[in-house]
Amino acid sequence: xxxxxxxxxxxxxxxxxxxxxxxxxxxxxxxxxxxxxxxxxxxxxxxxxxxxxxxxxxxxxxxxxxxxxxxxxxxxxxxxxxxxxxxxxxxxxxxxxxxxxxxxxxxxxxxxxxxxxxxxxxxxxxxxxxxxxxxxxxxxxxxxxxxxxxxxxxxxxxxxxxxxxxxxxxxxxxxxxxxxxxxxxxxxxxxxxxxxxxxxxxxxxxxxxxxxxxxxxxxxxxxxxxxxxxxxxxxxxxxxxxxxxxxxxxxxxxxxxxxxxxxxxxxxxxxxxxxxxxxxxxxxxxxxxxxxxxxxxxxxxxxxxxxxxxxxxxxxxxxxxxxxxxxxxxxxxxxxxxxxxxxxxxxxxxxxxxxxxxxxxxxxxxxxxxxxxxxxxxxxxxxxxxxxxxxxxxxxxxxxxxxxxxxxxxxxxxxxxxxxxxx
Length: 423
Hints:
Elements: H1 3-27, H2 40-60, H3 62-90, H4 96-113, H5 116-131, H6 133-142, H7 145-164, H8 178-202, H9 204-216, H10 220-233, H11 238-263, H12 268-291, H13 310-330, H14 339-346, H15 352-361, H16 365-394, H17 396-416, H18 419-422
Helix pairs in contact: 1-2, 1-4, 1-5, 2-3, 2-4, 3-4, 4-5, 7-8, 8-9, 8-10, 8-13, 9-10, 9-11, 10-11, 10-16, 11-12, 11-15, 11-17, 12-16, 12-17, 14-16, 15-16, 16-17
């Protein structure tokens, strides 16, 4: 590397040490001079030291790697010795300062030997982790065993099991993809977990709205399943929980319009009004249910004890996978006017695939009309399908509300299609 690049990399190494040292120094700012094992200057110099040894390692190649390993060991030993003396004097225990100093040296070396952006980003992350000590400790103190277990299960499902599954169909009919099946299951668990956190953090109403809108960006069907299950356990909260599912459906309608607009075809003007009006109808009903006082009694808080049950998540994952597989089989019926039947079945499980596919195929006025009609069908069917799934999952109270909202939304959107013929 040339001189200018070396200065840049050493500057990043120094900045990393300064940033971590700033946090360490601020924490011990009230201690007298000489009473700290490592503060701002020590960490700043440690980061620069790691950068210098990284530059030497780059110049000496294999021998340099051995040298930097020895330098890291000596540096870490010195920090450990002084931290030990500090701990004995203060009669305390703690190794965070030692680990922070070791990490500062290592990131300084990485800034010179590897990717500066990664080293800088990890330096910021390390400083933030150190700075939020009280917040993190308070959070750990409040977390329950069920919450910890659910978080670990979700992490294992996402980062251990999911990457191991083949991302291809494995059955003779090319319908079952293990990766997609498990991804859908993980999505249900993640939405349930996020909803649990949102409701505990900001309260019932705001948490339900956040769950519906954020979850609807990924899968409004998964949101419906999650909230319907909550409604089954908390029938007194069926109205606000239904509103969360309707917020997800309204978000789905907006997502369809965004996908079609992104493709840039002539389909958007044909579907914007009916889908937009239908989405607004869902939104209005969602707000109505959110504020509805069930049975005229004083509102009570949702008493959530478990972010999600693995058995329940697996059950609904299998249910939605079976629906998806059946849909794929039923939709292999060709093209032309048969695309309407395809849309009818496809909407049971998903709207995105059909929306994207039809938007891309709309190359002339005739195909644009065909695509628009197919997209309207798939959105309408999906809205009704979620009401049915919600009924099956959350019971009649949840299902009736979802179905009524679906009928109103479809009727409102359909009425806009009559406007040209009435004028």
